[in-house]
Write a structure and sequence with these properties.
Length: about 400
Amino acid sequence: MKNKNRSILLGAAFLMATSAIGPGFLTQTTVFTDTLLASFGFVILISVLIDIGAQSNIWRIIAVSGKRAQDIANDVLPGLGYFLAFLVALGGLAFNIGNIAGAGLGVNVLFGLSAKTGAILSCALAIGIFVVKEAGRAMDRFAQILGFVMIGLTVYVMIVSNPPYGEAVVKTFAPDTIDIFAIVTLVGGTVGGYISFAGGHRLIDAGLTGRAALPQVTRSSIYAIGIASLMRVILFLAVLGVVSQGLTLDPDNPPASVFQLAAGNIGYKIFGVVLWAAAITSVVGAAYTSVSFIRTFSPILEKYNRHIIIGFILVSTLVFVIVGQPVLILVLVGSLNGLILPIALGVMLVAAHKAKIVGDYKHPLWMTIVGVIIVIAMAWMGIYTLTNGIPQLFK
């Protein structure tokens, strides 16, 4: 039983982490490192602290209540759960189109097939995971294996690029510049939208809930952030190694050029594997978590949960194949996802102090204070991004 719980907790951690590590994650990390150089380490440090504060709060409250986020939200205020589910599902669908596109591009790099053909093949594989009888276990194993593959290959590119480790450490704590937009982007890309609930809802499905499980759940939530952050740091150092040599990244595909400049054609093929692994695990995580937000609203939705997940993946693929990558939609919903975190975390914090939801559980005061600070900061920064960023898209 102990080994089974450990496997579930590790699976939940990797599901969350690999959901965060998608095509956008690779591009954001590369672009910001190219702009901020070693000072990007400070952005990573601050975002990791915010991520841990947000995620540990959310996972603990989901675990102790034994309910999914949308049901908790409806208990806090009737109808709020439906609103939250709508936001998460909309954001998950939009990002899944981008994830499918990334998977297709990964196949294109590896085998020369068109991105659309690669997307269709990747779609078939993702669907296959939810067709098998033990879908949950298959999903856990899939996320773990590809998570290790991504990290291992990126470590190789980091070593080859030979970054200035000392400078990176110094600037992480004493940066030349502080970029608020970069911090918001990284937090939104790691625990925004559906991502912060991926592991928590997986634990619910596996039956790992209750006060007795809280120590394990808290550790698992921190492991999840740790895995995603480890990949972020390794990629940051790999990019830093390349740009510190005075090499110029390709603006059309910055991450690919990092791998190619660092390790030649082999590096380019490695990028194909990393991009595909990052994209396909995000496809699985986005579909699973987005659908988990609506499955409790009706017995029919619960009964046909796996069929709806498969449909979610099919629709994402169909949109990409027919329309192509809808950049404007992805940017718009990306901004929307930046607002989902403070809404969702705020709801969780209110729920943590309602006896009808958590019983006689007492949520640690320091966690509540940290959570409130994150809610206020992310709400302000999210609104700032919406009011100042989106109007620029239509000019």
